[in-house]
Design goal:
The chain has about 300 residues and is of the alpha/beta class. The protein is built from 10 helices and 15 strands. Helix 8 packs across helix 10.
Length: about 300
């Protein structure tokens, strides 16, 4: 299978190249980085000069790993060529932009899979199973913390920020885990660590349907130590995924075979290209998650509770 990675020289694109090669693909790369030829030899992909080469090369599918402000136009152009796409989250920075991609997908033979990798993480898949089984009883709350140093400067610019670039995962994950929507949000934060154009930290308190609270501490902070956890509290027990992605049920570790979720996701993208009938994170999921992200940004700007439904 021939796969093109757009943004192959970036941090995420390099991960795509690595795992696609391990999965047996012939990998091509496209990037604005002037050192693309040197980097292609270093990590092992075939560089191309532009999207117009795709059809002549017989490319089967394309992954898009570029800053989010660039994603909508790239996706729409590829859909015009009837290509199957895996686009990294968030796909766009507004519900209007996502809706325009959805319209383009309706006119295309191609489909767009969205890179919500947490849905391919074995720990969260198992967490969802346990919640559905009733083993922890009624869910009464969710707590999360996700803080680390940022690796690239574009994340602090106008089209960056922790809400859309990092925490969009949670706004997709939580409704999937519990089967209920996020209704209200209240956020306080700012750009205290890097002083950029977008927020680099905030505290979030939100309410899910059924009056279930979800709290989040999020930051790209300026020191090396990273901290993260995700906790679901129930009336009969609790579930925690720690910073090493290990799952605990009421304090006891749950043994799970866990591959890198990105590799699992790319394998499923290959299956999508082959026509395997299976649900995958799509543009509707992205639209719903971005709607929540817009509400969080609104709350940060106004200092008020924002209703999302």
């Amino acid at each position: 299978m021939r796969i093109l990675v757009i943004g192959a020289c970036g941090k995420m694109g390099r991960g795509h190249v690595k795992y696609l090669k391990e999965l047996g693909c012939e990998v091509y790369g496209l990037d604005v980085n002037p050192n693309i030829n040197l980097i292609s030899k270093e990590i092992g992909f075939i560089p191309i000069d532009g999207i117009e080469e795709i059809q002549a090369l017989g490319i089967d599918g394309i992954t898009v790993a570029v800053p989010p402000g660039e994603e909508p136009d790239i996706c729409k152009r590829l859909l015009e060529m009837d290509m199957n796409i895996l686009c990294e989250k968030p796909v766009a920075l507004s519900t209007e932009a996502v809706s325009s991609i959805i319209d383009a997908e309706k006119r295309s033979k191609g489909r767009v899979m969205v890179g919500f990798t947490m849905k391919y993480d074995a720990s969260f898949i198992k967490m969802r199973e346990v919640i559905k089984s009733g083993k922890i009883g009624k869910v009464v709350g969710i707590n999360a913390k996700k803080c680390w140093r940022a690796s690239t400067s574009w994340r602090f610019k106008k089209n960056g920020g922790v809400v859309f670039i990092k925490d969009i995962h949670y706004f997709d994950l939580i409704p999937w885990l519990l089967g209920i929507p996020i209704e209200d949000v209240f956020a306080i934060g700012g750009n205290d660590y890097y002083g950029g154009e977008s927020e680099d930290n905030y505290f979030l308190l939100s309410k899910l349907s059924g009056n279930i609270p979800f709290s989040l501490i999020s930051a790209w902070w300026s020191y090396d130590k990273g901290e993260s956890y995700f906790e679901v509290l129930g009336t009969k027990g609790g579930l925690v995924v720690d910073k090493k992605a290990k799952l605990y049920l009421s304090g006891e570790e749950v043994e799970i075979f866990r591959e890198d979720p990105l590799k699992v996701e790319l394998r499923e993208f290959m299956n999508m290209i082959r026509g395997v009938k299976k649900a995958f994170p799509d543009l509707t999921n992205a639209l719903n998650a971005i709607r929540i992200a817009e509400c969080v940004k609104n709350s940060l700007e106004t200092g008020k509770v924002v209703k999302c439904r």
